[in-house]
Amino acid sequence: ELTFAKQFVIITVCLYERCKMGQYAKDTNVSPEQSLMEIRKTLTRYKATGFGIVEDSTRVGVTFDMEGRRVRFVVPLPDRDDKRFKYTSNNRYGYRGEFSEKLYEQGTRQKWRALLLTIKAKLESVESQIETFEEAFMAHLVLPDGRTMGEIAVPQIKMAYETKTMPPLLGSGK
Known about the structure:
By secondary structure, this protein is an alpha+beta fold. The protein is built from 5 helices and 3 strands; from the N terminus they run ααβββααα.
């Protein structure tokens, strides 16, 4: 008999294996700039304020204020060393094992579309009263010390499962 925990592990592994390559929008032609404009437009439609973006070569951060809270998504950009961005055979575009800028840019476009989908889904979930704003965005809420709730809670959740003890209250150390 499969217990709930075993079922959860099986489903999680299956989802991880299916999604780790980023299937959503994997063939999109929409530029990152267009996706960013759509994110901004979506956030404005839902009454977000204080929109900001920070980028470097490995990640992009999108921040906005809504419902009296600051929200921050940090999305890792594709790794240029990932084998997905190497040619697999000799062809007119490059040689086996050579880096493909075209494939890398496709991976970047996919990440931006997935971020847009994530934000839209969370906002619609709140709008449809499936969950509260805090429930939908909890991991991405920026706390007074500048860290997100996810940065604090995820290691504590992992530790709780490993040690079978409850973590201290948020920020109290108790």
